[in-house]
Design goal:
- Helices cover about 40% and strands about 20% of the residues.
- The protein is an alpha/beta fold.
- Helix 5 crosses helix 6.
Length: about 160
């Protein structure tokens, strides 16, 4: 359950999530940026993998979630589109044992403004994170890494 301050925090975050995009695009080590919208984090990441012909590895424990959202998903408050998204691309995603159905739903959840997913070289990570911090996104996180391999996404705990 969210209280008024929780809803206010959600509105604040969703109204400013993509602002760092222009500054990030100017960094030489940034290879791709996409907003996480209708296909959820996994769907947009899978599209990056397909375009780059790479595999992605995500740490669920590193994925930033808004306060209270995991509890909401665990209680069954998830979107129908999350399930449809999983049905459309889940065969290209490997979930480690221990990734819960609520976490899966959140990773596939379609967003109106779900923030930015940035693929960058290892030597650009610090500057990318500083860019997010300068713009007030202290919750931005490195959620995984890309590697050689077929276009797939693996999610570990």
């Amino acid at each position: 359950q969210l209280d008024a301050s929780g809803y206010a925090a959600m509105i604040d975050v969703t109204t400013r999530l993509n602002r760092p995009g222009a500054d990030l695009a100017r960094l030489s080590g940034v290879h791709a940026i996409t907003d996480v919208t209708g296909f959820g984090l996994l769907g947009h990441l899978l599209e990056l993998c397909r375009g780059a012909k790479l595999a992605a590895h995500v740490r669920m424990s590193s994925v930033p979630l808004l306060g209270g959202v995991l509890a909401m998903a665990e209680s069954g408050l998830v979107t129908g589109a999350s399930g449809r998204n999983w049905a459309s691309y889940g065969d290209s995603v490997h979930l480690a044992p221990g990734v819960t159905s609520a976490q899966q739903a959140l990773l596939c959840d379609p967003q109106t403004s779900g923030g930015l997913l940035v693929a960058c070289s290892q030597d650009a990570v610090d500057e990318v994170m500083k860019t997010f911090e300068r713009q007030g996104f202290e919750g931005a996180a490195v959620v995984g890494a890309m590697s050689a391999g077929s276009a797939r996404v693996s999610v570990e705990i």
